[in-house]
Amino acid sequence: MSAIKSKSVLARSMLSAEPSYMVLFATAVCNARCPMCFYWEEIESANAKQELRLDEYEKITESLNHLYYLSIGGGEPFIRKDLSRVVELFYRNSNTRAVTVATNGWFEKRVREYVEYLSRHCPGIQLRIQVSIDNLFEKHDQNRLLKGLFNKLLDTCKTIEELKKAGAPLMFSIGTVLTPENRDDLAALRRFLDENIAYDDLSLIYPRGNAKDAHFKAVSLEEYRAAKKDFNSVKAEPGT
């Protein structure tokens, strides 16, 4: 799809009375147990057999004609092996052209397959993968209660970089949730990210919602503003 046609789709979606933006929780199933997660009750009671099937997504997407932007979360979205097919239905039936998926980065192979499939089957689509990274090495694993996660997400980040270099229509984001547990480690985290990962944008996220452990969202707005200012002002070490 040409840039002109893509802009035309966006313009029609903005002028339509129908929604042009949707947040989709593709699954409540998750392999991590993040104490700051606002979706923890759904995750703990999740049953994959109760989730929407592709034929149900077919009907939903046929009723939405101008849904330009889709933001996908969970649970861990890439637990769904058919995630690319779900997105394809939105692309074909709802004129969706921009799709973001937030992931913990565990499923490197599925991320690769997702990007490659949609790059082939959905011309003109713009994909974004946001990988969650809150801390370094074992501290990140402990924070998300999933051993080996940090090393897994590094593999996923490298795969995303490779896909971008190969020409995939892909943007690469990093999302860091601010908690009392990582406040003092943010400078080291930022330096590591800048020196080791070729991301396009980076967000420090304010903890929100009904966290399972209230301690992990005990961050005031003033603390968040100060942390964000510090996070954005970190410079690389001399000689790096």
Under CATH, the topology can be stated as TIM Barrel
The parts where pLDDT drops under 50 for at least 5 residues are none
Query: How many structurally independent domains?
Result: 1
Please bin the fraction of helical residues: 40-55%
Short description:
The chain is of the alpha/beta class and 240 residues long. Helices cover 42% and strands 16% of the residues. It contains 9 helices and 6 strands.
Structure in words:
The longest helix has 17 residues, at 149-165. This protein has 240 residues and is an alpha/beta fold. It contains nine helices and six strands, in the order αβααβαβαβααβαβα. α5 (108-121) packs parallel to α7 (149-165). Strands 1-2-3-4-5-6 form a six-stranded parallel β-sheet. It has one domain (3-233): Aldolase class I (TIM Barrel, Alpha-Beta Barrel).
Features:
240 residues, TIM Barrel, 6-stranded parallel β-sheet, 42% helix, 9 helices, alpha/beta
Question: Would you spell out the secondary-structure blueprint of this structure?
Answer:
Blueprint: H1 3-15, E1 21-27, H2 40-44, H3 54-62, E2 69-74, H4 83-94, E3 98-103, H5 108-121, E4 126-132, H6 137-144, H7 149-165, E5 170-177, H8 186-196, E6 201-205, H9 221-233
Parallel strand pairs: 1-2, 2-3, 3-4, 4-5, 5-6
Helix pairs in contact: 3-4, 4-5, 5-7
